[in-house]
Amino acid sequence: MLEFTERFNVRYSKFLACKRGFDQTGEYMFLSQIRKRRSIRKYTEQPVEPEKMEQIVEALLRAPTSRGLNPWEFVAVTKKSLLEELSKLKPHGASFLKDAALAIVICADPSIAETWIEDNTIAAIMGQLTAESLGLGSCWIQVRGRDYSSKQTAEAYVADLLDIPTNLKIESIIAIGYGDEEKPFKETADLQYEKVKLNSYRSLYKP
Ligand SMILES: Cc1cc2nc3c(=O)[nH]c(=O)nc-3n(C[C@H](O)[C@H](O)[C@H](O)COP(=O)(O)O)c2cc1C
What we know:
Layout: H1 2-19, H2 29-36, H3 50-61, E1 72-77, H4 80-86, E2 102-108, H5 116-133, E3 137-142, H6 154-162, E4 169-177, E5 197-198, E6 200-204
Antiparallel strand pairs: 1-2, 2-4, 3-4, 5-6
Helix pairs in contact: 3-5
The structure holds flavin mononucleotide.
C-alpha cells in the first residue's frame, strides 16, 4: 500500500510540474522548445491544419508593441502558386518558400509607430515559437532592404504580388511547414556567454 502511495505521489508531482510549465526532467517546457528551435528550410507536403494556423495568428496578434499601438498587419499565404512566386523575391535565401505550406508576410504602417521594426520582429518570433511548439518548422526571410532585381526592391515585388498598399512597409516573411530536415540543437556549452556581463561591462556573467 505504501509503495502504491509513493508511486502515486511521484506521478502526481510530475503531473503538477507539467501543469506549472516544467517537463519531466524539471526543465521549463518553454526553454526546451527554445533549445530545439532551428531555422527549417525543407518541408514535407503536409498542409498546416487550420487550427494550428489559428494559433499562430493568435500569437502574432498577442505580441507586445510599443504603447500598444499595433502598427503591424499580416498577410497569410497558403496558395501554392503564390508561395512559388513569393519564393523568387530575392536571388538568395528565399527559394525554399515554394515548398512551405504557409507564409506569413509581416508588414507595418510606420506612420503609426516609429518602433514598427521592433514591433514586427517581436510578432514574427512569437509566431515562429508558436509554430515550433505545434511541431512545425519555420524560417525568417528578410524582405526589408533586399532587392528582387537591379530595378525592383523585394518589398515592391511582394507588395505587387499580394496587393499590399504602399503605406505599408514589408519587413519579413515567415515560412512555415512540417519540417523535412533534422538539425542538431546548439549545446549550452557552445553559447556565447562571454557576450553577457554582470553589473559592469568589465565583469563577465558566469552561469
Ligand atoms: C533578421 C533575420 C534575417 C534572416 N534572413 C534570412 C533569409 O533571408 N533567408 C534565410 O534562409 N534565413 C534567414 N534568417 C535565418 C538565419 O539565417 C538563422 O536564424 C541563423 O543562421 C541561425 O540559425 P538557426 O535559426 O537555425 O539557429 C534570418 C534570421 C534573422 C533573425
